[in-house]
Write a structure and sequence with these properties.
Blueprint: E1 2-6, H1 7-10, H2 16-23, H3 26-34, E2 38-41, E3 50-53, H4 61-65, E4 67-70, E5 74-78, E6 81-86, E7 99-102, E8 106-115, E9 138-144
């Protein structure tokens, strides 16, 4: 599972035992989602390309054409440092497997968009691999939260099947 997380909420994790207490089970992950310190980008096992944008949720016409399903919004509160990584890399000791981004402290909305990129003509080469022009699997928007009264998604699964556009 990939995820976006508030660094300060997990900086106390330095070994497997402290990680296990915070993130091993779905109930642990769910608790952190509800605490607004963790957002799952959960597509199951596999290798996925995710593009994260610090801007309003505004897909291009091309991206909208291949949008499979948008997630309900998640909430994330941060003290100024957010991280993007695999679940197993959530820790206070970040390394090359963690992308760290400094942003203004505050409340944010995370909107994930699942892209059916391989449906676009020319996105897959003759061996079935993505070409250099292929869209990512997921486009994620991080925007400042101006409306604290919206209902946020709190499930570990990022997308609901019933929300699929196709």
């Amino acid at each position: 599972m990939l995820c976006i997380w508030n660094y300060d909420s997990f900086k106390h994790i330095h070994d497997y035992d402290t990680w296990d207490k915070e993130l091993c089970e779905d109930d642990d992950i769910s608790r952190n989602i509800k605490n607004r310190s963790f957002v799952p980008l959960n597509l199951g096992d596999g290798a996925f390309e995710v593009e994260v944008r610090l801007c309003e949720n505004n897909l291009s016409d091309r991206e909208r054409e291949y949008l499979l399903v948008p997630s309900q919004p998640y909430a994330l509160n941060t003290s100024g440092t957010i991280c993007v990584s695999g679940l197993e890399h959530v820790a206070g000791d970040t390394d090359e497997n963690v992308e760290t981004v400094k942003i203004k402290p505050g409340a944010y909305v995370i909107q994930a968009n699942l892209i059916d990129w391989n449906q676009e003509p020319g996105a897959v080469d003759s061996d079935g691999n993505p070409t250099n022009t292929a869209l990512p699997d997921m486009i994620v928007f991080i925007t400042e939260n101006g409306n604290q009264n919206i209902e946020y998604r709190t499930e570990v699964e990022t997308f609901r099947k019933e929300d699929a556009l196709r």
